[in-house]
Amino acid sequence: MAPDLFVNTAPVLERKRAMLACHRSQRDWLDASQGMGAYLEEMVRMGAEVGRMSGRFACAEGWLRHNFLGFCAEGFNPIQDLLKGDCHAQTA
């Protein structure tokens, strides 16, 4: 399923990369389970791919908004409210 909410990660990409590099358990698990020896480069590649999907950002994370019923008002979107221009919601 394609994401319908995109968060711009380009401004924090180097920090995100440095934080991921600190997690030896992530590196070891990705190497062992998925043969992803270049997991930092893969994170950058995947971010660029999601950025292209957004049609707006060079690098992004994609999210799916869950059904609001039983949880909040239909228009409630705290991520978009907080991140303003660094968050883009695609409508169907």
Structure, described:
With about 90 residues, this protein is an alpha+beta fold. It has one domain. Helices cover about 45% and strands about 10% of the residues. It has four helices and three strands; from the N terminus they run E-H-H-H-E-H-E. A three-stranded antiparallel sheet has the order 2-1-3. The longest helix is centred in the middle third of the chain and has 16 residues. It is elongated, with a radius of gyration of 15 Å. It starts with a strand and ends with a strand. The mean pLDDT is about 85.
Low-pLDDT segments, ≥5 res: none
State the separation between the terminal residues, measured CA to CA.
13 Å
Helix/sheet category: alpha+beta
Helical residue percent band: 40-55%
In round numbers, the mean pLDDT is 86
Shape field: elongated
Quaternary: single chain
Question: What about the largest sheet?
Answer: 3 strands, antiparallel
Figure out the total of helices: 4
User: How many DSSP-defined strands?
Assistant: 3
Topology:
Layout: E1 5-8, H1 13-21, H2 24-34, H3 39-54, E2 60-63, H4 78-83, E3 87-89
Antiparallel strand pairs: 1-2, 1-3
Compact description:
The chain has 92 residues and is an alpha+beta fold. The protein has helices spanning 13-21, 24-34, 39-54, 78-83, and strands at residues 5-8, 60-63, 87-89.
